[in-house]
Amino acid sequence: MVEILRHQPHEPVGMPGMPRLSAEESALLSTNALEARSAAALFQSTNVWDVHLKFTSNQWSRLGPNIVPPVLGFVRPDGSIILRNPKAARNGLAGVFGLDLPWSEADLEIGGASFRDVGARFKGNGTFVNSQRSYKRPFKIDLNKHLKQQELAGRVTLNFHNLTADASCIRDTLAYEFFRDAGVPASRTAFARLRLTVGSRFGDRLLGLYVLVENPDSVWAREQFGVGGVALFKPVTYELFKDLGEDWTAYEGIYDPKTKIKPKQSQRLMAFSKLVTRASDPEFAARVGEFIDLEEFSKFLACQVLLSNYDGPLSNGQNFLLYLDPGTERFGFIPWDLDHSWGEFPFVGSLDQRERASIWHPWMGENRFLQRMLEVGAVRECYRRELERIRNTLFLPDRLGHRVDELVPVVRPFIAEESAGRLARFEREVGQARGLAPISNNGSPPRRPSYSLKSFIAARAESVSQQLEGRAEGVILTRRQGR
């Protein structure tokens, strides 16, 4: 896989299509970004911002990817995957494969607002790897990387996720909203219809629908928690809070701070890692509440489990953030990258198994931190309360199905603009029925049932209720299962 990725052409094949919205459909676009005085106005889930990215040919070329030495043998014998390459600037699968994503420049127009010489780079891991032969790649934009004091509604960083892994196009939006409704700090989202110009190659071509995800940074944290100095970390590790000694350099690359970290904050993380790794069961139970906000942790875990989100901390040790409250000095959790939530992640078990995944042993493989947490009586009680509360008030098939039906007409015109095939996949995922996947082009029979968001929600809700009531045990997923 590494050799194929490193030696295939990194330039996209073909050319993006032409924009083809009708006047009526164009009127549905959000074009008033200059009037957005706050992030709350920018990140409305029903906004579809009209966005145009403009690169010169040289600027596009500087986006790379650059080639660095890959990590060979990245699949371990137990099925876990190495997700850090010290030779790459960023953690994640793309870096492991030897693909590094440098910054370049571009001009940006969004909703009638124009910005010159913004910082631009490709982003993502699986979503970038899967889109290399297409121009529809995920982008991160830094408005004031080159020209200072450029901002939009108080934000300087914009994340455009390309939805290549999400045929429904609404899983991110629905999941972040679900976490927030449950009381978990989480980013807000909007949609964007991206157009692209690349120098003399082409001008004003269509990339299609993206989701715009609020960047969790120091500005976001101050607004979220009402205080400055919140430390944010973005870990990539199967061994969360493992004791690595008393030298912060051993932790820094793994925990990838997203804010400026004070010495006492790094020491706090190292102290908790020592407790998780070395404390006896009675000591851990007695002291865990000093380091972890148990209610916040329980809300976060309950949401991850209800959504069967296995592209995250339950499975591969990534796609979440830690925050350290400067007042309480306790850690909490923030979700990230939720396009494979709602039980869709196809690399873990079968769809039926993900619908029935265990609520009491939801993690895959060895996970000492989660195991120790749920062995503590007070944590298990709190987690059960939150699971019951969220299941009975928020994870309701009728409620969530209604929300799906509200979002579908928001995005449908812009999915249809991309292609008939993408529209067909969208309609299948947001519809009610779960049937067999279509026969492939070579005539081979379907390999698995097609995914339906509403069908998953109904099946998952029933399974969680059965497990809470003691009528079912749930499925403990293991690595390599369903491969």
Characterise the protein shown here.
The chain is α+β, with helices and mostly antiparallel strands and 483 residues long. It has a domain at 2-221. The protein has 18 helices and 12 strands. The protein has helices at 2-7, 23-26, 39-42, 57-61, 93-96, 126-129, 171-182, 218-225, 249-255, 263-278, 281-291, 294-306, 351-355, 368-375, 377-393, 397-418, 420-430, 453-468, and strands at 48-55, 66-67, 99-100, 104-110, 113-122, 139-142, 157-161, 189-198, 202-214, 231-233, 320-324, 331-335. The strands form 3 sheets. Strands 1-4-5-6-7-9-8 form a 7-stranded mixed barrel. A 3-stranded antiparallel beta sheet has the order 10-11-12. Strands 2-3 form a two-stranded antiparallel sheet. A hairpin with a 3-residue loop joins strand 8 and strand 9. Helix 12 (294-306) packs across helix 15 (377-393) and helix 16 (397-418) packs antiparallel against helix 18. The chain is globular and about 65 Å long.
Summary, kept brief:
The protein is α+β, with helices and mostly antiparallel strands and about 475 residues long.
List the helices and strands and how they pair.
Elements lengths: L1 H6 L15 H4 L12 H4 L5 E8 L1 H5 L4 E2 L25 H4 L2 E2 L3 E7 L2 E10 L3 H4 L9 E4 L14 E5 L9 H12 L6 E10 L3 E13 L3 H8 L5 E3 L15 H7 L7 H16 L2 H11 L2 H13 L13 E5 L6 E5 L15 H5 L12 H8 L1 H17 L3 H22 L1 H11 L22 H16 L15
Parallel strand pairs: 1-8
Antiparallel strand pairs: 1-4, 2-3, 4-5, 5-6, 6-7, 7-9, 8-9, 10-11, 11-12
Helix pairs in contact: 10-11, 12-15, 16-17, 16-18
